[in-house]
Amino acid sequence: MTELIDRAYFQELAHQPPEDVCHRALCRYDEAEREYILPAWGDDFTIDPHGRQIGCVKNNERDYHEYFHLFIIYYLLRAKEIEARNEWISEKDMDGGPTFFRGPHEIPTNLITRRYENDIEKFRKRCEQIHGSALDMADAAYRFTMAPRIPIAVLYWRGDDEFPAEARILYDRTITEHLTLDIVFALAVAICTRIGTRLAEDMI
User: Fold this and answer.
1) Distance CA 197, CA 204 (A)
2) Is the dihedral of CA 131, 138, 104, 25 positive or negative?
3) In Å, how far from its chain's centre is CA 202?
4) Which residues pair with 89 in a beta bridge?
5) Rounded CA gap, 37 and 150, in Å?
6) How far apart are CA 187 and CA 183, in angstroms?
7) Distance CA 28, CA 8 (A)
8) Whole-angstrom Cα distance, residue 107 to residue 169?
9) Does pLDDT of 186 surpass 50?
10) Any residues with CB less than 8 A from the CB of 13 and at least 6 apart, and which?
11) How open is the CA angle 109-55-44, to the nearest 5 degrees?
12) Fewest CB within a 10 Å sphere: which of 5, 142, 179, 180?
């Protein structure tokens, strides 16, 4: 799942001082294995910049979209020592966001609404299954920690006769201090894909 990641990212990470990366990204470095261990979305990921490999310690890697690996290595390279502000913004509130996040870069929240429609309880179940913490927003909402400095929120509204169900992703105001817009998009695709995945018991 690392084929889409430019090897230059791995090379750059291999040349960065581990103590600097760990301080900025709030991760660990295993000197014996020469790999980073990053807590991300409730799991631990190993990043081997020399072998150009990213793996998930517990879950099957297929549980994550390949874009999530791209997000992980970019986060290690560019995360800054900035605390989250706990102020939510949408992608349209980011500098350049209204222009960038449309057409081919429109956030695919339809994957979530198509999956759950008006079944809020099933949406809640899925979010709790993948390490979400409930928020008092919308008809249902959950906070996720994508990486130590990257909290996001997923909001869901039931539809009615006039308006269809709606999902939205919100981001901490600091996100563009760490990520470029194309990496925010990659992260959003990974979020929509994972939350929109059918539960195993639904497929029996």
Assistant:
1) 14
2) negative
3) 24
4) 171
5) 16
6) 6
7) 22
8) 9
9) yes
10) 21, 36, 47, 49, 73, 76, 77
11) 75
12) 180
Instruction: Determine the length of the chain.
Output: 204
Residue 204 has pLDDT above 60, yes or no: no
Domain boundaries, the chain: 7-78, 88-203
The whole-angstrom separation of Cα 42 and Cα 55 is 14
Pairwise CA distance, residues 175 & 191, whole Å: 15
Q: Can you give the three-state secondary structure of 32-94, one letter per residue?
A: CCCEEEEEECCEEEEEECCCCEEEECCCCHHHCCHHHHHHHHHHHHHCCCCCCCCCEECHHHC
pTM of this structure: 0.93
Pairwise CA distance, residues 44 & 7, whole Å: 22
Q: Write the CA distances from 23 to 40, 148, 195, integer angstroms.
A: 16, 11, 30
Pick the CATH number of 88-203 from 3.30.310, 2.40.50, 3.30.160, 2.60.40: 3.30.310
Cβ(143)–Cβ(152) under 8 Å?
yes
Task: State how far the Cα of 131 lies from the Cα of 167, in Å rounded to an integer.
Answer: 18
pLDDT tens for 79-118 read 999 999 999 999 999 999 999 999 999 999 999 999 999 9
